[in-house]
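Quick one, T. Sequence first:
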Amino acid sequence: MTACAREGCGGTIEDDGFCDSCGFEAKAEAVSTRTATAAWTPTSSTEAWTPSTSTVGTVSTGSTGTSSGRRGSGRTSSRGLLGAGMVEVPRVPARDPATAILPDPKVPESKRYCSRCGAKVGRGKDDTPGREEGFCPECGNHFSFTPKLSAGDLVHGQYEVLGCLAHGGLGWIYLARDHAVADRWVVLKGLLDSGDADALAAALAERQFLAEVEHPSIVKIYNFVEHQHPGEDRAVGYIVMEYVGGTSIKDLIKAARTAGDPAACLPVEQAIAYALEMLPALGFLHGNGLLFCDFKPDNMIQQEEQLKLIDLGAVRQETDHRTSIYGTIGYQAPEIGEAWPSVSSDLYTVGRSLAVMSFAFDFQIAFRHKLPSAADVPLLADYPSFHQFLLRATAKDPAARFTDAEQMREQLTGVLREVLASQDGQPRPGTSTEFTPEKRAFGASSRIPRDKPDPAEVATVLPVPLVDPHDPGTTYLASVTAADATELIEALSTADVDGLEVRLRLVRAHLDVRDATGAGNVLDGLDGADWRIDWYRGLVALAAGRPDDAVKLFTGIYHLLPGEAAPKLALAVAAETAGDTRAAERFYRVVWRTDRGYISAAFGLARALLAAGERTEAVAVLGSVPDVSSHHVAAMLAAVRTRIGLSEPDELAEADLLAAGDQVAALDLEVERRTQVTRELLEVALAWRQADPDRTATGSLLGCRLAEPDLRLALEDCFRTLARRANSRQERFALVDRANQIRPRTWT
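Structure tokens:
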């Protein structure tokens, strides 16, 4: 036995890892994983939540499946491919059901609470153990923590009880065999207390609609039966559920902590993979008017490479504003206590669970309704988009959270792509569900850093938010055939059809003709919560020369859509225009590292790196532009000029000159362009040689020795080649004169 480390508690930690006094799990640094379930019925004022029971043991099931419903898109999550197939999650072997049976099923005294008022019950004093059955001293409610079924009991003439598996929020859970259906393994979930009206109502509610819930990632309800116990006045109800052996995510975390690190959690990519697998299941429930209410790591089971959502005891109809609410402290949304559960409060529990799975923090007391800062959690500092995702998912204001499980899944998938790309440097591109690709690359010049992007032009080429197909103006816009932006402005300004899409398209047309004032006037007439309005306000601010305002607006979009690349790209160019090259570098980097389709990000990152004096890395970034890109040649030439053109001649190394020559030689350039680039490179090499005539040079540049006479002859040849291709006599004569001047002096 060890003393509880929680301040003010004089209890000891029992064998199950929980304190016998305060009931909390052994505290490791800032870790607290109390799993208390509470019931509450809303009144006109806020009522305190009181714990009733905690889970002992695990009921295991597992698989994956398809999302559908009124709020979801009906997309499929592939079986055995956790994390959209991007994350390799360790397999969890299937468990022999017989080994899951508890040899001595008891509820620890530290977890015994009255199911009605939440008071501590069944607690011992001094050396006298507490009672497992009795009456609550506070409210007089009868309590019982003893199993009602024993091995060998036959329930409903069909289910042979084999033993206890766990004790959950609504009572004991048993393993049984279904003799009527191929002796399959099943789980019987009983009531917390046969005399408890709330528990009975919850069980009856399950019988009414849970048997109709069929989703491969949600435990299947087979039946609802009643059983008369000897000595009882009335029959007790049991839910019959499927059983598939596995391990809960909470137990996986516990195992990691037991192995040595008391603050261990799951790798962030694994935690995200689990959440991604469960969101379609929640979306399915929401689409059918149901709320899960008690999402947490305890209720996710992994078997092999499959995941399943278990324990439907707290599931309720979305329109149910009558029955008691069951949930878990530390995961429950802050409005529960003044408002009924909702889709928003369900999604809140996903965000909290994801945080608990990813990093250790006192989520049930000190941070019950908030997250620690990035300064205190290095993981959040390492993955800012993940932090932004958690902040939106767990926002105190329900209206600020994700709107549905599908949107949450899409954004979390984008965050996962960023996380994985940052870990191994391999891009993880994905198709956005909110934005088009960028219309064309900006700042993609071969003369970095001299050619910086024009903010007004950038505002016309950044990705565009996708149109709303339900907007009345969308069909009209598809029929508009204006030849240019000016004609489009006239057509849209006098259109009989109105709607947000028409107004936003008009804004873009004004930006296309560099009329930021006109675009701003259109936006001033719009009022609504659609985030796209702020996106266009950010574009107008950028085009109008107000980059600081643009940064603020794009930051708000980034908070809303942390998995999207477009807000980060917009933030990067706005920060660059505002002179904040450090922020520009950060956002350009995450976009380019994750998706090589955003060529603007490569050139922007190179500019930011050069501003910070990181020439070598800037060259490497430009060199990473794919050769299939139409901007590959511009990037390679920019890399050449970056390598040789930003240092004094005597500071250059021979290796830089030779590497630049190799890059030029590898490019497929037409004659005049190759000659121009070769001339630039030879001129730098000549200045390098003249800066220190005695330096030793052993290599050759584009077939030319790094000796002054050879460099002069090669340059003469370049100027004469360019003269033959000159567009005017004046230009040709000037090039010939330059050739004569550069040729080496001889006596002949």
